[in-house]
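Folded chain entry —
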Amino acid sequence: MDPPTDQHRLIIIDALDIMHHAQTVINNLYPKDDKTPDALYLPILANELLSKGGNVRIFINSYDYVNRQNYRNFVILERLRLMGLLHIVSGDPVVFRSTLLQTAKKHAALIVSRDSFHNIFPDQLADVPRHVRLYEVTTDPDFKKEDLLERLVVQSKVSVNFLPHDELVIPVTHREYAKICLGAVNIPMFNHANSLELETLLELIRYNLSYELLKKCPTFNEEDYPIIPE
């Protein structure tokens, strides 16, 4: 029997929290006072964490998914669900946060969110510092529109540099190694075929950001990107 190997830790992304805080604020792309939650950064953040060794899943409340038309680029949510990255959780906001913490505790996972999780069931408060990792939204002061011709550049972006590699990949000697193995069974690693589909989605985002910047009408729709029936 082969010896046990290091395990990839489950990373849970709080979808709507990211959509609210990491809004698209590229100059001239949207009105500066536009506060519409945007799904644009979800696949970008997921890909970044996957590339660092995390086993990533995105969680969203069922109410928010049913009403996804209220959010910008909601087609991205549908695509993420079809490729197995987006998980839908039923319940009110407190139940949703509780479910995230329960899942994180069961699988020794990390939750990426800007929510402090203070509005949670009292018996779960001790789990917050162990499992919740706050992210930061930064602004690039050197942003230039012409950079979009070469690569994806956003003025507001999610920084995940605060999650070091040794938090994402756990060695056999880790005290919660067994929980992480259980998590890998229940929520398997993102497979190669879906990784290719994610790359396709990221290329679409890069293309639309550069193209729609000129049109000032930057929203994905079914004509641009047909939805595959479930």
